[in-house]
Amino acid sequence: MDDADAAIQAGGRRVAAGRAAHWARSGLRLYRRQPGAWLACSATLCSVLALAAAVPLPFLPALHVLTPALSAGLVLACSAVEAGGRAHPLQIFEGIRRASGPLLALGVFALLADLLAQAAVAACLGSWQGASAVGGISKVALSLRVVFCAPALLALWFAPALVLLNRLSAPAALRASLLAGVRSPLAVGLHAAWALGLVALAAAPSWLRTPTGAALPFAPVWTTVLMSAVTPWLAGSVYAASRDIFGRPARPSRPSLRS
């Protein structure tokens, strides 16, 4: 293992809190280069995830397992656009083609982390209904669930990019991503807070209610449209952050996994 590899697996370089704003601006610049192509990519991603969420798989929710693998395709699209190429919808599936094993392993990790978070919330509130309800006590449950998921979210933040571009195995990528948050807590924390806030705003039609308490008309459609609009910006910012913290790999096109 050379010095660059050791630095990556140790969590990359420390960065100042102000880098979070730079990452957001960098993501927006990538988005503005090819807005139409990016919208096609994100619409494909959101459509596939929406279909996965609708599949009744009680013991293996497809949404958790597929999200890191499919979002990794956006990492490759960011790399292509930065190099002067074009983003296209089929790149969403390129990550699975190149590194299906470690990327799906990240998805399994995400699933297990969420199940453990639900169990912890249930233990705190005294019932599984409290962990999954959507009204009343559910606000407390949701807040606790986010808190319990925070370490796993931090471990997953850069993991898909590290698997594809820095050629790490799934456990090494999770560890490096987690350590990056520990080494640069303000920068990564501010970036995560901005990204999650943007996602919450995009998802607003799904939780807003009319004065009579009814759901907004066509709420799922509006949510999908808004999520498709902000996803390229988010992906570009995560890509920029990963390059800033972990550096640019010498040959990013073909991952050769190492532990």
Features:
mainly alpha; 259 residues
* Rg (CA only): 18 Å
Shape: globular
Largest sheet: none
Structural class: mainly alpha
Helical stretch tally: 12
Low-confidence stretches: 128-137, 250-259
Q: Assess the beta-strand content as a share of residues.
A: under 5%
**Mean pLDDT over the full residue set:** 82
State the distance separating the first and last CA atoms. Answer: 10 Å
Q: Which H/E pattern describes the elements?
A: HHHHHHHHHHHH
Number of strands: 0
Give the total of domains.
1
Helix content: over 70%
How would you describe this protein?
The chain has 259 residues and is an all-alpha fold. The protein has one domain (3-246). Helix content is 74%, strand content 0%. The chain contains 12 helices and no strands. The protein has helices at residues 3-9, 19-33, 35-54, 62-82, 94-125, 128-132, 138-157, 159-165, 170-183, 185-202, 204-207, 219-246. Helix 3 (35-54) runs antiparallel to helix 4 (62-82), helix 4 packs across helix 8 and helix 4 (62-82) packs across helix 12. It is globular, with a radius of gyration of 18 Å. The relative contact order is 0.18. Mean pLDDT is 82; it is low at 128-137 and 250-259.
